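Hey all, quick one. A colleague (J.T.) asked me to put the 2-phosphoglycolic acid job into the tracker so the inputs and the structure tokens live in one place instead of scattered across chat threads. No bug as far as I know, just bookkeeping. Sequence used:
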Amino acid sequence: MKIKVFDNPTQMGYMIAKEVAAQLNTKPESVLILPTGSTPIPTYKSIVEMYKNGEVSFKDAVTFNLDEYIGIESDHEERYYNFMQRNLFSHVDIKPENINIPDNQTTDCEKECVDYEAKYRASGCADLALLGIGNNGHIGFNEPGTAFDSVTHVTSIAESTIKANARFFASEDLVPKQAMTMGISTILSAKKIFILITGKGKHDILMKLLDTAVADESIPATALRLHPDVTIYADREAAGLI
Ligand code: PGA
């Protein structure tokens, strides 16, 4: 794993956006795995800016989001479908049919996960995956203990994640308890992976990730040790003195 440290999240987002633009300019039909959460927002802002300046196009791009809540109203602003429209998709030229996010309006989420995995694999898998990380080391909603050979599945959200995500909801008990998420093996199928880590609050998990030399299912992000092309993007607050 390589690590790149930036002065602040804005600068970091700009550099990641440049990488995404380079990927799409080299291969316009690239398949991307995309995250939600607060960490990727500066990246999405920079991508939108680059799109407006004619520096990148999503005309032929195909995207798969990492995950989606189960049991959230269709118009709730924290539904990841709505998050992605607001922060990225409504501002760029991506074709609606090339956007993939697990459909949480279905009555059969288990089947949705099977179909989502199949559609993702049929796309040829991601050229580039952007990921966030939870304080407990989760990637997507793969909470500690998730098998490294997992594929897209329905999962229970860990108590610590519910607490962390409560800041986006009116109260903690309104945070959904379940989600659909790409599995760890789904994520590892991407040809190149960037993991985005910002803020003081993520310093400890970044240190744990760097200090855990052997992939360990109790810290899901350590699965990235099994992948040949992973870059950690961190800001100075998350990196501390490293
Ligand atoms: P955050 O979430 O970017 O809002 O911190 C990351 C995650 O939980 O994966």
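Adding what we noticed when we looked at it: The helical segments are 9-26, 41-52, 80-87, 109-122, 159-165, 184-188, 203-211, 236-239. Residues 37-39, 132-134, 138 surround 2-phosphoglycolic acid (CB under 6 Å).
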